[in-house]
Amino acid sequence: METGPAEDLLPRERAPHDSFDVEPPYAPDHEAVAAVEEYADRFLDRELSWLRFNQRVLELAEDPTLPLLERVRFLAIFTSNLDEFFMVRVAGLKRRIAAGLAVRAASGLMPREVLEQIWRTSRELSERQVRLFRDEIHPALREAGIEIVRWHELDEAEQKHCRKLFKERVFPVLTPLAVDPAHPFPYISGLSLNLAVVLRDPETGKEHFARVKVPPIFTRFVPLGNQRFVPLEDVMRERLKKLFPGMEVLEAHSFRVTRNEDLEVEEDDAENILAALEKELLRRRFGPPVRLEVEESITPAVLDLLVSELDVAEEEVVRLPGPLDLRGLHGIADLDREELKYPAFVPTTHPRLAEVESAAPVDVFKAARRQDVLLHHPYDSFATSVQRFLEQAAADPHVLAIKQTLYRTSGDSPIIDALVDAAEAGKQVLVIVEIKARFDEEANIRWARKLEQAGCHVVYGLVGLKTHCKLSMVVREETGTGGGIRRYTHIGTGNYNPKTSRTYEDLGLITTDVAIGEDVAHLFNNLSGWSRNASYEQLLVAPDSVRSGLIERIHREIAHHREGRPARIRMKANSIVDEAVVDALYLASQAGVPVQLLVRGICALRPGVPGLSETIEVRSVLGRFLEHSRIFWFEGGGEPEAWIGSADMMHRNLDRRVEVLVRLPGEASRAVVDELLTRAFDPDTDAWLLGPDGAWERSRGPVHLQEWLIERQRRRRTTG
Fold it and tell me: Are strands 616-620 and 539-542 parallel, antiparallel or unpaired?
């Protein structure tokens, strides 16, 4: 059994729905618990709720009030989202069924029932996406002078251009793979676009099958000039005779396979987790298929061959009009047509970090000593706040040490560069790298090795737990009056990624609060050494105390309400699934406490159920930025508490990850969060509302939250 720092962070054994394990005076009585548990169908299914989320993304693509290329972008995002859902969630369901571990979900559904509903719903959504592209987006693009055409629509000059392109660039990299007794059916990599080709030997009359992969190294839609494009597979299809000289090409149909690409690394059995992960990444490419997409024009014989060789079930086949794989629409959305996009928005420097009558950047340490800085990205610039904080720390001779967690970061990350500079300057640099961040594993391995080579102390977190918290701590020796060691801490809701910080909505606190600094120092010691400290004054840390801490505060609100004091609960998260938290919110609602939830993605709670959740309102806001911050607000009987951090209300976050929530220490920071939540739940704010049946309905208010925040930022810039 593992000992050491992980002990106090590992999840405790608990009953599946043990929501009420809190100390008096906040513990509910048995009658209150029974009043919630009598609603056997009180949980919505998490997988089906996710599909409803992707439906909301599709509804953005359907929205005629949005700029055209933004609608195109949402079509591409819908495809990428659905791909990942099948690679991870559907693959996981299939794996559990195959292993005989099919237990009933909290929603009451068996995995097979969930899978059947997934197939039906996802097929309907995919067909809806294709109809939208064909009937609305494609004609609208053409009207705007952007044309995606098929081969038969090309004029002679364009066909000549495509033949030349094929000969000089595409043909040399193609590898046709035949299928016959001497050539087994080739491996089809996940998410690759392929042509299934049927050939006939004119001498013998015998038919043959071959597969040709559409090279992903080329642009998905081939530019023809004048913003006209043709799918690459159309060009290849037309020139197949060059690949199979002397043969007759009878048929060519595009198809695409989705495979299980979730990672399984047995850390306890791996001496070196880095080596184990590299091996697992190689295995990932050979995961079993979970979906087969084919053009609707495919013939039964070719489809039967693909189904048989790929070993997919009939319900896993999705027939769609071409072109398949609309992820390629990202390239169209990137066109330089600013009049067809959202108006340009440039993040601005937070007022407390803005230059004042000087060309030199503000000293972030000096600003933080004066007052806490609560950042709201992307409205507040990441580059002139968090990035500058670490760059100044690397260059400051008074900085002794930097401690940092990294979950995902960009390929050319200035954060990595700053940490390398700090280590090379002789500072103590500790970096907790989570190399198991899904789909970013290879990049994180590269950066882990670069940091190690620069002299940073690189740690891969705790066995059995992903390190998902967003923490940075700078230890500085102060000079002048009141000198000594001071800790500067940044705690955020989002990754230290300069690229995604421009499109992800997140919060981050830069503070010199002594208690917070001590808590974060203890946590870093837990993650890197043999500290046994598991109690914190200003933090809630999963898997030890996030769930229990939030549930205790929910029950405090119940007590405040019963005593006639101000009581209210507001939460903002990507997902709310955890049954214990949901049951506690139901109890609060039954007691009469107002509960407002702002959820971007999955929500397993049913609002508005008579007798169970009548005081609960659930909203969702989607738009040009990805809502990513997590906020937890408790009215506190007139003394409000506001917490921000990395944790969503899901089992993986609360039980299998190191997550951190921090209590905002100042009135000014709480006021910012209060204003954000108040605007989000204003009836005039455009949002989707969740009904008790799990369906979301859009309430088109005149104010869009993100546009309101952009306009507020612009006003601050012009009046500041």
Answer: unpaired
The identity of residue 121, as a single letter, is: T
Q: How far apart are CA 197 and CA 76, in angstroms?
A: 27
Q: Is 496 annotated as a binding residue?
A: no
Q: At what angle do helices 388-395 and 414-424 cross, to 10 degrees?
A: 10
CA 682/CA 703 separation, integer angstroms: 9
The CA-atom distances, in angstroms, between 52 and each of 43, 402, 442 are 15, 42, 31
Q: Which amino acid is located at 300 in the chain?
A: P
- C-alpha 51/C-alpha 601 separation (Å) is 9
The upper half-sphere exposure of residue 124, i.e. CA atoms within 13 Å in the direction of its Cβ, equals 9
- Residue 242: closest CA among 203, 208, 278, 212: 212
Residue 394: closest CA among 373, 349, 364, 368: 364
The answer to whether residues 509 and 375 touch, using CB atoms and an 8 Å cutoff, is: yes
Beta bridge partners of 599: 573
Inter-residue contact 464 to 267 (CB < 8 Å): yes
Element (DSSP H or E) covering residue 261: none
Give pLDDT tens digits for 606-619: 999 999 999 999 99
CA distance 703 to 720: 24
pLDDT band at 541 (very low <50, low <70, confident <90, very high): very high
| Continuous segment of H or E residues that includes residue 172 | none
> Exposure of 12 by Cβ count < 10 A (0-12 exposed, 13-18 middle, 19+ buried)?
exposed
**Among 613, 612, 611, 631, residue whose Cα is nearest residue 621:** 631
User: What's the pLDDT tens digit per position in 632-682?
Assistant: 999 999 999 999 999 999 999 999 999 999 999 999 999 999 999 999 999
Q: Measured between alpha carbons, how far is 509 from 352 in angstroms, rounded to an integer?
A: 13
From residue 316, alpha-carbon distances to 16, 290, 310, 417, 679 in Å are: 32, 7, 11, 45, 43
DSSP state, residue 674: H
Strand 539-542 relative to strand 248-259, pairing: unpaired
DSSP code per residue over 488-508: EEEEESS-S-TTGGGTEEEEE
Question: How do the domains of the chain map onto residue ranges?
Answer: 30-46+540-719, 68-340, 351-537
**Residue 486 counted as an annotated binding residue:** no
Say whether 12 counts as a known binding-site residue: no
Q: Any idea how long the chain is?
A: 720
Confirm whether 30-46+540-719 and 68-340 share one CATH topology. Answer: no
What are the start-end ranges of the E strands in 175-247? 177-179, 193-200, 207-213, 221-225, 228-231
Helix (H) or strand (E) holding 6: none
- Rg of the chain, C-alpha, whole Å: 28
Is residue 504 a known part of a binding site?
Answer: yes
C-alpha torsion angle, residues 595, 600, 606, 607 (rounded to 10): 40
From residue 593, alpha-carbon distances to 547, 580, 681 in Å are 19, 17, 16
The CATH H-level superfamily of 30-46+540-719 is Endonuclease Chain A (3.30.870.10)
Residues with a catalytic annotation lie at 468
Q: First CA to last CA across the chain, in angstroms?
A: 58
Cβ contact 141:147 at 8 Å:
yes
pLDDT in tens, 45-94: 999 999 999 999 999 999 999 999 999 999 999 999 999 999 989 988 88
The CATH class for the domain spanning 68-340 reads alpha beta
CATH class of the structural domain 351-537: alpha beta
Alpha carbon separation from 509 to 332, 406, 517, 640, 660 (Å, rounded): 37, 17, 12, 18, 12
